[in-house]
Amino acid sequence: MLPVLETRDLRKGFASARGRLEVLRGVDLAVAPGEVVAVLGPSGSGKSTLLHLCAGLEQGDGGSVHWDGAAVEPAAPGLAARRAGHVGLVFQHHYLLAELDVLENVTLPGRIVGRSVEAEARELLAAMGLGSRERDAFRALSGGERQRVAVARALVLGPRVVLADEPTGSLDRAGAKAVYRLLRDTVRARGSALVIVTHDESLVADSDRRVRLEEGVLV
Ligand SMILES: Nc1ncnc2c1ncn2[C@@H]1O[C@H](COP(=O)(O)OP(=O)(O)OP(=O)(O)O)[C@@H](O)[C@H]1O
Ligand SMILES: [Mg+2]
User: Fold this and answer.
1) At residue 1, does pLDDT exceed 90?
2) pLDDT band, residue 199 (cuts 50/70/90)
3) To 10 degrees, the CA torsion angle through 45, 49, 50, 56?
């Protein structure tokens, strides 16, 4: 079976005051359909950089990224539409829009691709325990509730893989655990794969696989 997401010898560096910083030095990662993979590693090890490249948001310096076997070129025309159909993104900050209520935030990806996703959005909000909060403004929600809305938005177009960068980083332990469980269960129920970046190994103890970014490679 083709990996939903694959990196081959992926490389990325940045110019810094101390000279060139080689952050990713040949990362090979293959995520199977439906697999839950946790990416661990210290601060500054390149976890967010790796996720951005996997999402096609940034261009690597070498190597390649593939979605269902097809190469991803960040500059290629049509990549945004391909991404919308393949990848769901969750960040540490929720990036909900204050002008829109909860349901409108979750259906926003549908508006971007020109598809009505209201039924899916309502189903996802109910699965995330927010069925009664559809018409709330996000300001009325707690931090954990906001992240649950962000998870529903990431899933609303039925992505093959969800990429989550420290989605529970701003929550306390109990809140982090609750959001992680809902994220994992909802992703699994929909047959999507999940790549979750976290500092907290105990949070993801039940993931299918844990990999660690060290010195620019996965170990
Ligand atoms: N756009 C950029 N320009 C210059 N340097 C960058 C850029 N993006 C990331 N870096 C550097 O690359 C390294 C890896 O950053 P990255 O954000 O990927 O780490 P991380 O593992 O996600 O860290 P954290 O756990 O703190 O979120 C850091 O040293 C960072 O300063
Ligand atoms: Mg990061």
Assistant:
1) no
2) confident
3) 180
Are 67 and 31 a contacting pair, CB within 8 Å? no
pLDDT tens digits for 52-75?
999 999 999 999 999 999 999 999
Report how far ligand 1's centroid is from the alpha carbon of 50 (Å): 10
For the stretch 79-90, pLDDT in tens is 999 999 999 999
Residue ranges in the chain assigned as alpha helix (H): 47-54, 79-86, 102-113, 118-127, 143-155, 173-189
Q: What's the CATH number of domain 5-210, 3.40.30.10, 3.40.50.720, 3.40.50.300, 1.10.287.130?
A: 3.40.50.300
- DSSP run (H or E) holding 168: none
For the CA of 46, the nearest atom of ligand 1: 18
What pLDDT does residue 170 have? Answer: 86
Residue 115 sits at the vertex; the CA angle it makes with 109 and 117, to the nearest 5 degrees, is: 70
Å from CA of 77 to ligand 2 middle: 27
State pTM to two decimals: 0.96
* In the chain, domain spans: 5-210
Residues with CB under 6 A from ligand 1: 14, 16, 21, 23, 41, 43-49
Give the Å distance between the CA of 19 and the centre of ligand 1: 15
Residue nearest to atom 2 of ligand 1 (CA): 14
Instruction: Report the separation in Å between the CA atom of 147 and the middle of ligand 2, taken as the mean of its atom positions.
Output: 17
> What percentage of residues in the chain have a pLDDT greater than 70?
100
